Amino acid sequence: MAEQTSKAAELKKQLAETRQNGWNRLAAGEEQAVEEFCKGYMDFLAEAKTEREAAAWATRALEAAGFVPLMPDAAYKPGDRVYRVNRDKAVVLAVIGKRSPREGVRIAAAHIDSPRLDLKQHPLYEADELAYLKTHYYGGIRKYQWPTVPMALHGVVVLRDGSRQTVNIGDQPGDPCFVVTDLLPHLAASQDKRTLSDGVRGEELNLLVGSRPFNNDEESEQVKLRVLQLLFERYGMCEADFLSAELEAVPAGRPVEIGFDRSMIGGYGQDDRVCAYPALMAALQLDQPEYTAVTVLTDKEETGSDGNTGLQSAYFRYFIEDLAEAFGCRAREIFSASTCLSADVNAAYDPTFADAFEKRNASYLGSGAVITKYTGARGKYDTSDASAEFTGDIRRRMDAAGVVWQTGELGKVDNGGGGTVAKYIANLDVDTIDLGVPVLCMHAPFEVVSKVDVYMTYRAIAVFFGD
Length: 467
Ligand code: MN
Ligand code: MN
Hints:
Blueprint lengths: L1 H14 L14 H18 L3 H14 L3 E2 L11 E6 L3 E6 L10 E6 L4 E12 L2 E9 L12 E8 L5 E6 L9 E2 L26 E4 L11 H14 L9 E7 L4 E3 L5 E4 L2 H15 L8 E6 L16 H12 L4 H7 L1 E5 L2 E2 L21 E4 L3 E2 L10 H13 L4 E3 L9 E2 L3 H5 L4 E6 L1 E2 L7 E4 H16 L1
Parallel strand pairs: 1-2, 4-14, 4-15, 15-21, 16-22, 17-19
Antiparallel strand pairs: 2-3, 3-14, 5-6, 5-11, 6-10, 7-8, 7-11, 9-10, 12-13, 13-23, 17-21, 18-20
The protein binds manganese (II) ion (MN) (2 copies).
């Protein structure tokens, strides 16, 4: 009997697939690297809360690392570093490889926008001596999650005279915050009868921004007036300047370590800055890669990649066209020979809500970078399904380099779905697959990831670029 069992165990080891926790698969000394990398990531997350702030952060890092604007008429040699910023909201960068880009480039694409509450164009109003800002939510949020969370306001206002004011209030020490209110349980009898998706409605996501009147004379709406006075003092703006503003209400505060064991990171906006940061770091550490390594940090993924800063626009193609011109080849030659990691998050299996997932094909927190062969919804609509050949190639390279990785499908079939920028890059005739970090409570004001997965996503992208 004993002999039979050990034979089975041996065969199982040889043939069957087993999942192992990422922490148990770290190489000697790698735990230190995980901690160091995640410390840098948490600082980035605290400083880059919007696409503009992430683009500015990346630009500073690139300029410090010797990246210069890409010029189609320049001559480049291996190791040269070029970049381009699109309207302060998206960044493309490349480290020139030893081989000509004509032989293909390696692309990592992540997005730096996250779900949030944008201010409407006429946002400020007073109701019963309280001042509010009307919002229009951006991206897919579960609206009931956003009230009673301290919020900060980030963005820009273009004033009547054309000058641009930067707004960043609620995240610096001593700053006030703002909040969307919700009912107390004592009086929620009728709200409680709504469905969860309707529990808090879009037009109820109003940001509380003041309660003190300007003075006590007969003039109406004095609470709003005082807010306007403070806005004028601080930003030189008046009410009409909201018309030409991009102001984003985002959860206030720094990311934190989660768990007695500090194995996780909790914070706002990790989808997809948790992949953008590893992608940027993987590019920065390159010296002279074999293939030119291109990183794109894009905007507007959460709303469908439309608009001139989203990946459906031509800005990425133009970058490759200019690169092609510098090397005397055609962009289509580059695209057709290229490969891409669409670096985006996937849903981590949540045991509390096990029913939403298909356990055999879900990704797990702490089991490493998740490779997602296809995304989409229903019968694989809206997806670029990576080929077996390309998936096999990535798999071999990850294994050879000791990257801890897993696969994951987004939840149960027909239980929803979602997409990434993978299909927009794949549509350019590029072999593309999703790789990124599994996330708990994705798109909530506070998202949770595992440190080991963040680090392994960095390693995966570095390996993808590096060989
Ligand atoms: Mn994403
Ligand atoms: Mn998302």
